[in-house]
Specification:
The chain is built from seven helices and two strands. By secondary structure, it is mainly α. The protein folds into two domains: about 55 residues, no CATH class; about 90 residues, Orthogonal Bundle (Arc Repressor Mutant, subunit A), CATH 1.10.10. A two-stranded antiparallel ribbon has the order 1-2. A hairpin with a 7-residue loop joins strand 1 and strand 2.
């Protein structure tokens, strides 16, 4: 599958990346740069996932920018929308954890979204000290405008697969998400600059 939709069959991967036996990794010899890559096809799949991530980030910047929204704004709205869909109470603290932002950065983000009319902060009826973050109808409309074209385009690719292929894709993506979470929680490599692992949480 290309960045936003073009499918690739086994033959396409061979043409793009060469025969599986053409690389030392195909014979079990580890690539010094990527010792985890056991085969050319493994590397090709990981490379395509990176291509998709790049394409998605570019899409968000272009489409979100057309509505005056930053990437972090859209990521926040996505988390708020998912919480509402699951009927979960989303606090500023939980949102900060999901976005890897500090408390001050999250407060600034929510203030910006509130001023734009995209979210509102409400107090829990049973505990007035507890604040929840909710999405407004205006934000839902913006979300549809930004993501509907992407969803429709990807849906065409999904619908071109049969049920077994779709199940395989779902299992693969579930595994990728879980693997990414595990990798995120790994300790920082020895010699890494102090604070490098938490620098992203201080942005915003």
């Amino acid at each position: 599958m290309d960045q936003l939709g073009t499918q690739h069959g086994p033959g396409d991967l061979t043409r793009q990346h060469g025969p599986a036996t053409s690389s030392p990794t195909a014979t079990g010899e580890a690539d010094d740069r990527r010792p985890w890559a056991s085969s050319e096809r493994t590397m090709a799949i990981i490379d395509r996932l990176r291509d998709f991530t790049t394409a998605m980030e570019h899409y968000v910047e272009v489409r979100g920018g057309a509505h005056g929204m930053h990437r972090t704004d859209l990521h926040a709205l996505g988390h708020i929308m998912n919480a509402a869909r699951r009927d979960e109470d989303l606090t500023p603290g939980r949102l900060a954890a999901a976005l890897s932002l500090s408390s001050p950065a999250t407060s600034a983000l929510l203030a910006r979204l509130e001023e734009a009319g995209h979210v509102r902060r409400t107090h829990n009826t049973s505990d007035r000290r507890r604040v929840s973050v909710e999405m407004t109808d205006e934000a839902r409309a913006v979300g549809r405008a930004v993501f509907a074209p992407l969803g429709g385009s990807i849906a065409q690719v999904v619908q071109s697969l049969d049920a077994d292929e779709q199940d395989t894709v779902l299992r693969f993506l579930d595994g990728v998400v879980e693997a990414t979470s595990r990798a995120t929680d790994l300790p920082a490599p020895a010699g890494a600059p102090a604070g490098a692992a938490t620098s992203a949480s201080k942005e915003g």
